[in-house]
Amino acid sequence: MSTPSQTRTSSSSRPHRAARLEDAVNAAVAGFLRRRDWAPRVEPYTGYGAPGWVRIMARALLAPPGTRASEVAERDPASSRRAVRGWRSFLTAQVPGARVEVTVGGVTHEVVADRGGYVDTVLESSLEPGWHDVHVGLGGQTSTARVLVVGPEQRTALVSDIDDTVMVTALPRPLLAAWNSMVLHESARRVVPGMAELYRRWGAANPGAPTFYLSTGAWNVAPALRRFLERNGYPGGPLLLTDWGPTNTGWFRSGQDHKRESLRRLMRELPQVRWVLVGDDGQHDPQIYGDIASEHPGRVALVAIRELTPAEQLLAHGTPAPAEDEDVARRAAGPVVVHGADGHEIALRLIDAGIL
Fold first, then answer.
1. pLDDT tens across 158-197, in order?
2. What backbone torsions phi and psi does residue 307 show, to the nearest 5 degrees?
3. How distant is the alpha carbon of residue 279 from its chain centre?
4. pTM of the full predicted structure?
5. Residue 13 half-sphere exposure, CB side, CA atoms within 13 Å?
6. Chain centroid offset of residue 131 CA
7. What sign does the dihedral 54-57-63-67 (CA atoms) show?
8. Most buried residue, 45, 110, 150, 267, by most Cβ within 10 Å?
C-alpha cells in the first residue's frame, strides 16, 4: 500500500541561527515550567485521509499542573463557551522530540514530534469513508481528535481561506493584525456576511463533500478558529495552518509557499477530486489559485473571490484598490471564476452561473 508522503522538507540540515536561538529560549522556558510541575499534554487537530491512510496533526505542549487532556484539545466543549483573548494562544511551551502515541482504528503507532512540538504524519489506516475519532496520547493522558476520510467516490471538495474570507481580520497591517490576533476576545471577531450560508448551501448541493480551511495563521490559534467556525455555523473540516517560527533556512516561513504547497499536496492526495477554491482579493489568493489551476488543468472547478471594501483593501496592503494580481485567476484556463462583496453576492453569481 502506498501513502502520501509528508511535505516538511528543508534545503539545509543545520537550523538557521534564528531557529537555534528559538530552541535555546524554549529550552529555558520549558525547564522553568517543568520545575513547577507543568506536564506534557498533546493538542490534537482535525485530520483527514482516504482509504488506506490518514494524516494526523497535533502538537506536544506543556500544561499547568492538573490540566486535563480535553482542556488543551482543539474541540474542548467547555472552551467553546468562553471568550479568550488572543495573546493567551501564543503563550505556549512546546515539547520537542516528544514521543506521542496515536491510535487509529485500534492500532497504536508511536510518532515523534519535531523541534516545534508538532506532529504531522501519515499513518496506515483501515478506516471507512466518513468522520472518525482517533486517540492521541502523551504524558499518561489521551485526547480525542476527529479525522475525515474522503471516499474514492467523492468528486468535489472546497478549500476556503480564513482571514477576510470567512472572518473580518484586516490583515496584515502589523499593528491591526496584532490587535486582532492578540488583544480582541474571540467573540469580538466579525463574520463575513453570508459566507456560512454559502458554504452550507454548497454542501447541500454536494452531499458529503469535505471543506478544508487553509490559512497562513499560526497553529496556536487553531482552537480559537475552530470555535469561531462552529459558533457561526460553518461546516466542520480540517484546518491547514502553519508555524510562524523560524525554520532551517530563515527567520520566518512564507505564507504564500504554505498555501501553494498545501494545495499541491491536496491535489496529490485526493486525485479524483475537483476543487472549489474560495479566497479574497486583499492579498495573493487570486494569484495562488490561478497558478494552481494552471499547474493542474481540469482539477479546479471554481474560484470564488470575496472583494474587499476600499477600507479593507487599504488595511490589507496600503492602497484602496485590489492587489495588482487580482485578475490572475481570470486568466487560468478551466475554472469558473466569480467575485462578490460577501457570501450573499457570491451565491447570486453562482446561481447565475447555474452552479447553485
1. 999 998 899 887 555 454 445 445 445 556 678 999 999 9
2. -90, 120
3. 14
4. 0.82
5. 0
6. 18
7. negative
8. 45
